[in-house]
Amino acid sequence: MPTVLARSIRRIGIGLAVMSISVGLPLVADALRPEAAIGNASAAPIDADKAAAFDWVDRNAETMKALATDLWGTPELSFREFRSSRTLIRYLESNGFTVTTGAAGMPTAFVASAGSGKPVVALWTEEDALAGMSQRPAPAREPIVAGGPGHACWHNLIGPSTAAAAVAVAQFLKRTGAPGTIRVYGTPAEETGGGKDFMLDAGLFRDVDVLLGWHPSTNTRTEFEYSKAMAEMHFRFKGVASHASVAPDKGRSALHAVELMDAGVNALREQLKEDVRVQYVISNGGGEPNVIPADAESWYIVRANKHDEAADVVQWISEIAKGAAMMTRTQVDMRVDNDQPEVLPNRPLAVVLDRNLHLVGAPAFRDEDRAFARRLLEGSGRDPQPVSTDVVALPREPAQEAYSTDLGNVSWTVATGRFAVAPSPYVIAPHTWQAAVNAATAGLEAIPIAAKTLAATAIELFKTPGAIDAAKEDLAAVSHGHTYKLLTPPGRKPPVYREGASAQPLR
Amino acid sequence: MPTVLARSIRRIGIGLAVMSISVGLPLVADALRPEAAIGNASAAPIDADKAAAFDWVDRNAETMKALATDLWGTPELSFREFRSSRTLIRYLESNGFTVTTGAAGMPTAFVASAGSGKPVVALWTEEDALAGMSQRPAPAREPIVAGGPGHACWHNLIGPSTAAAAVAVAQFLKRTGAPGTIRVYGTPAEETGGGKDFMLDAGLFRDVDVLLGWHPSTNTRTEFEYSKAMAEMHFRFKGVASHASVAPDKGRSALHAVELMDAGVNALREQLKEDVRVQYVISNGGGEPNVIPADAESWYIVRANKHDEAADVVQWISEIAKGAAMMTRTQVDMRVDNDQPEVLPNRPLAVVLDRNLHLVGAPAFRDEDRAFARRLLEGSGRDPQPVSTDVVALPREPAQEAYSTDLGNVSWTVATGRFAVAPSPYVIAPHTWQAAVNAATAGLEAIPIAAKTLAATAIELFKTPGAIDAAKEDLAAVSHGHTYKLLTPPGRKPPVYREGASAQPLR
Amino acid sequence: MPTVLARSIRRIGIGLAVMSISVGLPLVADALRPEAAIGNASAAPIDADKAAAFDWVDRNAETMKALATDLWGTPELSFREFRSSRTLIRYLESNGFTVTTGAAGMPTAFVASAGSGKPVVALWTEEDALAGMSQRPAPAREPIVAGGPGHACWHNLIGPSTAAAAVAVAQFLKRTGAPGTIRVYGTPAEETGGGKDFMLDAGLFRDVDVLLGWHPSTNTRTEFEYSKAMAEMHFRFKGVASHASVAPDKGRSALHAVELMDAGVNALREQLKEDVRVQYVISNGGGEPNVIPADAESWYIVRANKHDEAADVVQWISEIAKGAAMMTRTQVDMRVDNDQPEVLPNRPLAVVLDRNLHLVGAPAFRDEDRAFARRLLEGSGRDPQPVSTDVVALPREPAQEAYSTDLGNVSWTVATGRFAVAPSPYVIAPHTWQAAVNAATAGLEAIPIAAKTLAATAIELFKTPGAIDAAKEDLAAVSHGHTYKLLTPPGRKPPVYREGASAQPLR
Amino acid sequence: MPTVLARSIRRIGIGLAVMSISVGLPLVADALRPEAAIGNASAAPIDADKAAAFDWVDRNAETMKALATDLWGTPELSFREFRSSRTLIRYLESNGFTVTTGAAGMPTAFVASAGSGKPVVALWTEEDALAGMSQRPAPAREPIVAGGPGHACWHNLIGPSTAAAAVAVAQFLKRTGAPGTIRVYGTPAEETGGGKDFMLDAGLFRDVDVLLGWHPSTNTRTEFEYSKAMAEMHFRFKGVASHASVAPDKGRSALHAVELMDAGVNALREQLKEDVRVQYVISNGGGEPNVIPADAESWYIVRANKHDEAADVVQWISEIAKGAAMMTRTQVDMRVDNDQPEVLPNRPLAVVLDRNLHLVGAPAFRDEDRAFARRLLEGSGRDPQPVSTDVVALPREPAQEAYSTDLGNVSWTVATGRFAVAPSPYVIAPHTWQAAVNAATAGLEAIPIAAKTLAATAIELFKTPGAIDAAKEDLAAVSHGHTYKLLTPPGRKPPVYREGASAQPLR
Hints:
The structure is a homotetramer of 507-residue chains. Chain A is of the alpha/beta class and 507 residues long. In chain A, 39% of the residues lie in helices and 17% in strands.
């Protein structure tokens, strides 16, 4: 593929050019003066270690993209990332990493390590796909498997880029003999369920000094921002089955309970503050219409800017559920599957990440990419919104974003730095079939950008222990005195599915 | 009005003709052999006393119709029949009745008496109109007062015909010197509220031997039938007011509670037995939309064939109300305004009534009446359904009807006989504007029919003490061992309105 | 199993005893005077042919029960009766039947024939189980597979008994050399989908003279009765997916459309006539709560005593669906999967069936069965309702029942006779887990009863051509002039599933 | 009342003190350099004219408060401010104003003028109260008239203070002989209906140069801010009445339509942007439950930051209404009663107002007021939120507030300046019974503050024609090119009520 090759060469060229300028700059001092970088999007100077990592990434870009395309082709739902995790584990092991599989009791969780001793810099990956998002890589809605899952949140890009970054960093550690460990945490069920918390509860992050990761988004930026807090839960209603025509009066409809609960929540929306989001689906709508449904279930996600507020709304919703059960003479059971505070931004890590993200730059899309994206977005009823071709400037104050992630609890425990890379020349909404198309086409261009940024940042941190200390101090200062009570039941276990079997978890 | 005059004469003629045949028949024995009359609609023989009463009714028919037209023109809501009750009281007093007004603490209730001693034969009247049914006597929807009340249940026909019958019977008692008392109970709020029960609780029916009455319906028949049991109640929800735009999160919406309760009840319909009926209106929908409503109220009627079943449904609905309050963090208060078991049919009284109803015959409508009724019913999307021109045969077993009345409790206490007269040549549904038109036009023809039937039946009962005994024995036998617990609060008081003032009761 | 053996012997004894009495009675004449049998439950006399069939059934009773237990253990959903149909086909083929598989384009439909020429007497079987009804044969709710299907409508009893009857009749035809064909129609998807109609449309019933079948029910009776008419349909709503927190305003919720449609239907219940039944489940409740659902689906069954009325209600519900789509800016597509008029009772066939059912008698349950049934029904909050130990008398007029079946269209085309056998000493509601337990325990006792009744009736019909003519004339007379327009799309195809694959049909 | 007297004296003292400092400052220039005042809350210098006005206000403070107390005692609903407007008209006429009553076809609208020629400075008043807010001036919920209206939005304070300011300004014009006209616009129905627009449409604001007014709020500030745009509308559903038990299937429920529409809107909330507000009440919930309601009505207010967005939401809601009508086979009619864009802030006027508001200062509450306010707010479940004792600084950019007013259209036509005065030492939410209490107690203290600020601002504008020009230029610049299409029907007429009659407007 000559076009792609040409690009890689161009990038190497830029990398080397910049490298020559940056030799000899006092990186350590810079990291300790994080405020220097605020506001002006000045790129970090490049040193030989970063340059070597960039070179490695560029040489392996096609491999990474092939890996991402492979993952894209076998989308797997949350907690069921069997094949995807094996693919990444194989890649990491073949590149010298030691891998613990089945971490924290989850068959698809893993921890891969290289190097040794302190500090421990960790990267995370996510591999799960979204239900109902199966889609051919074509600019029209065409599922590959009707109703099947699809990579509409770009997680297929995350694993390969992160694994590649980890390998490049491992090479740096090995080459330089620098002390320190580079890890990759393969975290299941980012979309629903939240695998990271089971790893956190199992103590797997205990010795991690800083955690780094990325996600495709609407632009290329350091995510110095709050996500929303969120809680995810199931409401199971239990009624009495009865023949729907012969004896409907003998039945107690669990489905009516679910619908009345939803009606109650829709009315509640009037009383919610602007930043609150509540969404639900009906995960069990009741068997066959011949029988008054004895079992029905809904699945909720509640979000708010702050965890306390989300918890208050969950409390009210649980009262609505009880009211619906009372109305229908059924029983209800609420199970909180995931409870995440807002992700905590870490300014020192944001400054280092931002420096390196500017060094790498945003993806440069081709005219063909632009044309394809416009076709892809046709029929959405809105003009395509172009993405900035530059890395967005680091904000003075943390922004407040509307998404939420399962990184919330981790970010209150480990100093966490995050960034985003735009996978498209025009904004593509996550969780749409267009995102699934993009994840197999132009979105692949985000992979080397992310890999280089992760690698350069990790290398800089290994070379600048003070920056790690600053990040940890910032976390300590910001989280000091904050307590929040999780809604998830203590001692809960992750769901375990059997590979190949479909619907129900074994546990 | 020559046409009407001709009719009266024709009726007198028939009356006299039949009378001549009936002289000397042993009526007492007949009443004691009620089963003899079953199935074959044989008219009772007419005697001189009945003939005299018929004659009086025919001579006063225009007066009664004028009275009915007057009542029609000033429709008054339940418990607010101020002018209507005064009109009837004046008529009865001017015809020699002694009247107790303000009976049982209700300004519009009265008991009028003539004659003396036992037995006591009582007739009842109803005078209240229906909200929103104001209508000109024209074959198209034209309210006289937009949103105003109207006589869409024909109660304007009941008072005049019943009062006239009572006067005719009083004349019989006076003329013959027979022992016995004829009474008229002016009962408020038949439509909603149920004034009869307050009179019952006050002991006003204690010495009544039999109770007789009538209502317009889809045909002319003795109502040897069960009505549905019914309970009527208000649910008042109390929330917290708040500015609907500035601070909706501080409000608690009583209106949402009402709507969620209704949604719960609509879902419940799936679990209701076929004979159950539940209907509601929203009697307070919440002020102005600038404010989250702190107050809202719904008004329910629950009906079922049997009282126990209605009570079960009320129980479930009260749980739905509590569920709705829980959902919305509001409070709810349920107040049962009226609770009536199914009306108990009384076979001996039905037999006597049926005999006399056949003697009188169903109304004979004119071609003009038929043409007008067809115009009136045009646009209903259904072909007009012609009414039988004959009195319908007495059924072998009591029928089960869908309506309910506030006669339920009374009928379990006093032996009660009822019949219906068709007010129209084609079926007109009650509680429609067409009924309000009919009540001022052809419906007036039902008045002399009803008056004669009531008078003849009462006269026959006064002359046949054994028939009264049989009726009382039937009640004792049928109601023996049945107990039912009323949902109305013990010791409750009727609402009292001030004449002229509009909305709220004083108490 | 000595107990069972003792029973079989007892039954044979009875059969023989009765047989000796019945020899020589003029069966033909009796069948032509069907009214003779009304009201008094006189058993038919038994002849040698019936006695032989009974003997065969008794000798094979254990085999049939084993077959039923086998089917019970592998419950399969509608249109997916792969294993069950194969089991029956194998049994019939091994007993000399010629079997056409994959009938009418349905992998699980079959037609098995023995004998030759006219008349053609056909029996039908049903094999599908119900979703969510998986249950151990124990007196407490214990699914074998959580959420899995189960035989809660006793279809596991139908196939073995019907196949056995067919074999017994085939032996009669072979032995006597009588002209005529005995057939078994293996009809898929009785519970939902209605496989019989695809076979009807394919002309597979064209040469059938009479059709006979049975079903477990609340007592043992000839089903001289109307079922309800019914229509079954799916509503698929199509919206726009969007991230539920980042851009909910960009989404269009198909799930809200489903819920609002259901709310509209629940409100509609107030306007439905008493005999109408409407039930729904939500067959697609919308993916994951991270995404505003672009796809959601509900599944409805509408029933009414008459087909026209059901069709009217379907029309209104389709308007509600459109209203819900309008409310949510989504699109909706209605697909009618099954449309059945009320099953037409056939008096001549009912008379013959009734005679033979009385000859066979209702199942005689043991004390252990009664004790177990009482335990099974404990906790239902109702006293167990004992089942008549006698065959219920044939009613004078056809009864009206609340169930519906996919026999509706067939019964308007082929003269159809049906009967019920009580599978339990106490009434067990169909479509409950208790029914699933019963279908593997005492319910097995219904099998020989049903097999004998089917066999005796078919034999009597083969020997009495006039009875067949009477049945056909009755159908012609009753259905004359009646037309009904089916709501199912013309030329529709049955859904086809792949064995082993789970959720979605291939077509 | 010595306490109050002491206060007035104290205020006069402050006024004079400040006056002595300010003599001789070049006010004109200042007004032309509006930006000078931004950010620092510097008070305007006081001149002799303002001082004279302040003196007059202080001397008449008790009269104004008595007037406000009088209005408070006779609360009148929108378009029915009969007595209230007469009270203000009488006051203005007795102080030399010429008054046009019945302005723009509204019995309760008036325009009062004094002075002559240009420029024309206009003030507006509002007099309507809120339904259901009747309340004694006591710290517990005690309606004076159950369900009656009450001054829970402080409009009783607006008329007296504004009229007093106008009189003070008229005296200035008369005394100085300065050219110019001071006007008071008595505008009906601010709460619902929007009387200002009818006056605008009638051309009554055509020659107005600037418009000034005030409203109590959560603090004392110049309202340099956007309100929300809003549209207010009624949805009338028309069904078919029928007896609710005898023939519910013949009815078409307009009430169900209203409830389903509301359910649709509650679901829609999920798709609304954060700034949108939708609220409704049910203004006709359907007569009596004996009848399927043929008529029902809901009353909606839609708000959004921008008018276009509000109009989009109204469009969607109108589709929901149509969907609800389709669901219930009823008809619906939407009538927009009021449509207001967001109020346009005017920077030059804000600067002048702010200068004078600082000159006057925020109300100084007493310890008793504070103690009473705390008692008043007890039981609200929230700690009382203290109000700033200073005038809040003018913001750099216009703020965005959540309320809306009927000033929207006027503010896009006439340069409009507005300010708020805190009526309480602790924040009291508008449209609560606590606000009604405050409006009769401590809230009266806001009157002289508002009167002085209005008078001083008007005087300064009369003396500084350039400031008026600047205000008009700012309006022209900001509104240039903006067009918005009103949803109200062209040529609509205001509703007209008859004084004393209650519910329905004559037109």
